[in-house]
Amino acid sequence: MPYTTFDNISLDWVRQQSDKAIFFYDADQSIKPSDADSSDFQRLISDEKSVEYQLRSQFRVKAGVPYVEFVESLLNCELKDGAVFTSKNYEFRVFESLEDMRHVLAEKEREVGLSRLVAGYSWPWVSKNDPTAHDIVIDGINLRWNSTNTDWINVAQAPQEVGCIHTTQGYDLNYTGVIFGQEIRYDPHSKSIVIERDNYFDRNGVQGVRDPEELKRFVINIYRTLMLRGIRGTFIYACDESLRAYLQQHVPLHTTTDERIGGQNTIETVPFVNSVPLFDGQLGVENFVNLPVAEHQSWVLVPDGTLVHESMFAFRVIGESRDIVKSGWSGKKCRI
How confident is the model at residue 252 (pLDDT cuts 50, 70, 90)? Predict the structure, then answer.
């Protein structure tokens, strides 16, 4: 079911039409001034009849919460120098060439389907009235916006078109190719994202917006939302060279030799950062836990998002794991 944004009127209407209502609200997915304001939801939360729950996990992106948090910091220029996101089960790449990104995305479409090219609203929708016209021209590549607003993700011609935020928000994709348009750039002097209002063509997105920071918040939310559509991976290309250079500081760069072995990235294990030692059974558990880092022979990666500490280790279970738990191998010093 596609995601539906609420404005103030529809929010009040839902409350009036139901005895009980459940709202899912994420302020970071507010993309235009007509969306319901956060103050309206704060009013709902403060109502004595309301119950608030914080959703602290997500089930779309295979890279999990660490990826969501990384995207947030990346778009708000809050990452430390040298911070790069990698994941053994998620393909996240920045491209120097839009043509290369389209080629890789087309391969993903053939392999698993639901791989779409999307972009910020940096070009007017000329083809809406002239189907023969091209809306987007980048480095000699001619592209058209989505030919329909209704369930565009699933129409036959979608892989050859470019979707906007209004056709993709709330949908799940396997792979997303995100074009950062000419309305967003990076200023290397102030080390911040800058929005060019004259290059932003969503009329509903700018109507009534006077504060540049408010517009920046909406545009950042658009790109954050687009980057969280892909279940298996996200590819990005930036028209602005400075923005592309900034993204390359924190996102692995795609190269022609960037092939996977067995469908996985090769990731270096960092002891007690992204990996724990593998228990081989030759030592007692207590002696193994207290072994110096350099003397551990084998290390295994932990699932993304796992908080690692030095009392953790891994071991292989053959047979019923409950038998091992019964023997006393449980608690914070082991994971089954």
Answer: very high
**According to the model, what pLDDT value does residue 311 have?**
75
Question: Phi and psi for 222 in degrees, rounded to 5?
Answer: -60, -50
- Are 239 and 182 contacting, i.e. CB atoms less than 8 angstroms apart? yes
Backbone region of residue 127 per phi and psi (left: phi > 0; alpha: psi in -120 to 50; beta: other values)? alpha
Beta strands in 95-191 (DSSP E): 115-119, 136-138, 141-143, 162-163, 173-180, 184-187
For residue 234, the surrounding DSSP H or E stretch is: strand 230-238
* pTM, entire model: 0.66
DSSP secondary structure of 249-305: HHSPBP-TT---BTTB------BTTTEEEBP-SSS-HHHHHTS-GGG---EEEPPTT
End-to-end CA distance of the chain: 36
Query: What number of other Cβ atoms are within 10 A of residue 299's Cβ?
Result: 19
Token pair, residue 54, equals 């914080």
d(CA 332, CA 311): 7
- Residue pair 219/209 in contact (Cβ under 8 Å)? The answer is no
Q: Which domains does the chain have, with CATH numbers?
A: 1-56 (no CATH), 64-250 (3.40.50), 275-326 (no CATH)
Mean pLDDT of 57-70: 83
Greatest Cα-to-Cα distance within the chain, rounded to the nearest angstrom: 75
User: For the chain, what is the mean pLDDT?
Assistant: 80
Q: Which residue has the tokens 């809406």?
A: 128
Provide the token pair at 223. 């790109």
- Enumerate residues 6+ apart whose C-beta is below 8 A from 22: none
Higher pLDDT, 329 or 32: 32
Task: Give the Cα separation of 239 and 253 in Å (integer).
Answer: 15
Cα-Cα-Cα-Cα dihedral sign, residues 140, 146, 147, 153:
positive
Mean pLDDT for the stretch of residues 312-327: 50
Task: Name the percent of the chain lying above pLDDT 70.
Answer: 68
pLDDT greater than 90 at residue 114: yes
